[in-house]
Amino acid sequence: MIFDLADILPALPEMILATLALVLVLVAAYGGEGAENAKRVTRIALGGIVLALILIWSGTAADQTAFGGMFKADSFAIYMKILVLLGTFGALYMSITPLAKDDINKPEFALLVILALVGMMLMISANDLMSLYMAVELQSLPLYVVAAMRTNSLRSSEAGLKYFLLGALSSGMLLYGASLVYGFAGTTSFSGIAAAVSADQLPVAFIVGMVFMVSGIAFKISAAPFHMWTPDVYEGSPSPVTALFAIAPKVAAMALMMRLTYGAFGAIEVEWSQVLVALSIASMVVGALGAIMQRDIKRMMAYSSIAHMGYALAGLAAGSHQGALGVMIYMTGYIFMGAGSFSIILLMRRDGQSATRIADLQGLSRTHPMLALGLMIMMFSMAGIPPLAGFFGKWYVFLATVNAGLVPLAVIGVVMSVVGAFYYLRIIKIMYFEETDDPLDTDMPTANKMVLGVSIGVILLFFLGLSPLLEAANVAATALMTQL
Amino acid sequence: MIDNWPILSIVTFLPLAGVLFLLLIKGDEKALAQNSRFVAMWVSGFTFLVSLPLLIGFDSSLTGYQFEEKGVWLAGTGIGYHMGVDGISMPFVLLSTLLTPLSILASWRAITHRVREYMIAFLVLETMMIGMFVSLDMLMFYLFFEAVLIPMFLIIGIWGGPRRVYAAFKFFLYTLLGSVLMLVCMLAMYIDAGTTDIPALTAHQFAEPMQTWLFLGFLASFAVKVPMWPVHTWLPDAHVEAPTAGSMILAGVLLKMGGYGFLRFSLPMFPLASEFFAPLIFTLSIIAVIYTSLVALAQSDMKKMIAYSSVAHMGFVTIGIFTMTEQGIAGAMFQMISHGLVSAALFFSVGVVYDRLHTREISAYGGVAAVMPRYAVFFMFMMLASVGLPGTSGFVGEMLVLVGAWHASSWVAFFTATGLVLGATYMLWLYRRVMFGAIVNDQVKAMEPMQMREFSIFLPLTFLVLLFGVYPMALLDVMAVSIQFVLDGLSASGLSLLAAN
């Protein structure tokens, strides 16, 4: 197969990042041993992400396909890729110092993150079952490795192994579903699949295939009941890795879910909508109730992210333009809430050791007023209290849900958000209503300050930028609806 | 020239400017605390002054909203920046701007740790309260309505009493649960009407079955805020644990958010459902009036007693609103303003002796009148206003509500009147036990007399209670046209229903 330039250009940012990953292999191998080299690799990786961000931001919004229709670049892809790139940049940027402190700042980390990032971007642009599967695997494999990066820790190895086993299972489900879908549609391209089925002439096995595929992706976004790996992996992985997991891959997997349901399965919305409603309710309930009992803040964040995915899926279940728009607004707020929260969690150390129990936050408002204020804003936003970003996400998601006639889903959602508010408030209580005489370390790297500052700004002033954001999301949602 | 100023925006966001200023000041802990107090005092005082043109420039003969401001927020989606006041919201704005500086003054000595954060919370709270009353966009209303929870949660939780954590959580979660159900209804309304503009929604006719659901959703939120029986249980806890100033604002302004919501949303937008559910509201309110009065009678904690009396008084408000008569609604409005002033003063009265004796147990007091005679006078005046003595604002409100209730049903009026008797009983009994009798507690003897600062908090409240008591038209005139507008809307919907049948 011969590529011509027009076939490659839409995927230029991905190409650059993939090439960068190869260059980084060389730098990592020949750049010398030790921490300095790891830092160098990370800096180059960050530069690559910025370059990709600039390219995507300034790129054309017109629909383009590449590689024989397997790759799709449209305004939806632009919107989601910007989120993924921002999230990955934040997570990688603030990982430098914490990794060094844990003495696991290996050059492989940034390199693997870049590879996963290419996978995530390909997921967003996937337009064919083949590219879909390859993208998912490219995203997953590096993440399995980084989860187990702290080789001298049993928990980290356990987290990596667990993630790998369950991830492999989900890939199997995805692949099996894809094979069924291919079997009945006779093609792997999304537009071909969409053309091959219609609602009144629908083989049961096709629906089974669809359910398997949706379940496989539900695993990646950790929607209940495919969430079991999340708390363990979040807790066991080194904190900077957890931060990465919590932010970027969720956005990519959500984008893939949207592409698949709105695109390939667009004609059978009635069928997948039910599946998503079930996933959404289960996630909201499991996330809200599961988080209450947690003592480790990373575990709590795991359940919190399960609940957040439940809310986003509620918008998706509406199956409308409005629903897609709601999910995009929600995910925008989500990456900043995640980045802001983890920028603080990464700083939770006592006597040089990472201290991630919730109780370690005791009296933070006295010892670290700015961190406490920042975390409080993140918690209120996640609880969906206006006028913060989390509220607007919920507003647009539930707007679509109610509009689609799924009022009970919306009611369950808002009631669960009250349950959720309980554990977010608990964090605030521990920071503000309690005192401590054993404060956390005060060392604050610039990177974390920057990420926290930007996140606070975005979340506090979300309502000011909402109008242009809505416009962009609107264009992106239109592109998604008309992607075929 | 001054006509063109966005005066509502200025009043709303001025306290936030104060917050920025507070964040910038530096110094050692003592200087910081003192400077924070002064900054908060000046900013809130200035906000009050800036809000006065609303009163002076208000034309009470006009229907509709005044000082309106419209701006683009989310273009093309029917959601915009819209502010304005009418005869119903304007008094509440002034109540908020008046009570905030008074509460800050009331916490001058009582709050000694984390003073800057405390003042920030209060100024943020002021912005949220004012914003809620002046918003003419439903989404904006909701933003302010719910954002109030954040500063109040912190005020109770950080500067509250021994069970503050429990009280703060209960307050927050109770209110949030009500609010989110209202949120779902707001979404449905937005979808149905295509806009969140409150005047446009008032003109929009919602289908009858939909009105029922919307009414119930809004009721879930407002009933918790008011609070109505049986969802009032957060209130005694929150009041008892909150610092004095927190209680003043909570009783003075935050409870009015529910009553205001009924008048701004439920009655004008869901007239049919309002009529349908009025008997339910009457029943709940009558239970509230009688039951909470009896509960108040049994309290040994002063603050808790006044908290329960608040629930009873707010029962009058909901009865008045749902009589859907001119007297009833005017009475309810009057009662809300009057209760805002009186209950703030009563909670402050408790705070005055609490600052000296550090207990709120009624049995620890007795004979205070002998030690603090001037204080006894103020307390008595406020207590009598709360009971509804003619010549005080409390009388006018309760009287009008009773007249309205009589129009609706003589039984409602009968039971409501029972509450008046019970109210007099527990208040007078409280006063006797605290103020008169022999001094049994030696600490009471050592109590210092009232300070100038405390005097200056009582003075404006007393003046207003007296003014509205002897010249109620000062307030009634302002509200009359807006209330008539609400009533016209109700009868118009009744007529259209008749025509449809």
How would you portray this structure in words?
The complex is a heterodimer of chains A (484) and B (501). The relative contact order of chain A is 0.10. Chain A contains 21 helices and 4 strands. In chain A, strands 1-2 form a two-stranded antiparallel sheet. A two-stranded antiparallel ribbon of chain A has the order 3-4. Helix content of chain A is 75%, strand content 2%. Chain A has one domain (5-481). In chain B, strand 1 and strand 2 (79-85) form a beta hairpin. Chain B has helices at 7-24, 29-56, 90-106, 115-134, 138-147, 149-159, 164-193, 198-203, 208-225, 234-241, 244-254, 256-269, 271-297, 302-323, 326-357, 368-371, 373-387, 393-408, 410-435, 442-445, 452-470, 473-500, and strands at residues 66-74, 79-85. In chain B, strands 1-2 form a two-stranded antiparallel sheet. The model of chain B has no long low-confidence stretch (mean pLDDT 88). The radius of gyration of chain B is 22 Å and the shape is globular. The chains are: A mainly alpha (484), B mainly alpha (501). The A-B interface holds A 365, 380, 385-387, 391, 395, 398-399, 402-403, 407, 410-411, 414-415, 417-418, 421-422, 425, 428-429, 432-433, 463, 466-467, 470 and B 72-75, 77, 117, 139, 142-143, 146-147, 149-150, 153-154, 157-158, 164-165, 168-169, 172-173, 176-177, 180-181, 183-184, 187-188, 190-191.
Would you list the SSEs of chain B in sequence order as H and E? HHEEHHHHHHHHHHHHHHHHHHHH
Low-confidence stretches of chain A: none
Biggest sheet record of chain A = 2 strands, antiparallel
| Helix content range of chain A | over 70%
Strand order of the largest sheet of chain A: 1-2
Largest interface here, residues on each chain? A-B, 29 and 33 residues
Rounded to an integer in angstroms, the radius of gyration calculated over CA atoms of chain B is 22 Å
Strand content of chain B: under 5%
Largest sheet data of chain B: 2 strands, antiparallel
> What is the number of helical segments of chain B per DSSP (H or I, 4+ residues)?
22
Overall morphology of chain B: globular
**Secondary-structure class of chain A:** mainly alpha
Please write the string of helix (H) and strand (E) elements of chain A: HHHEEHHHHHHHHHHHHEEHHHHHH
How much of the sequence of chain A is in beta strands? under 5%
Distance between the termini of chain A: 24 Å
Average pLDDT score of chain A: 89
Whole-number total of structural domains of chain A: 1
Radius of gyration of chain A: 21 Å
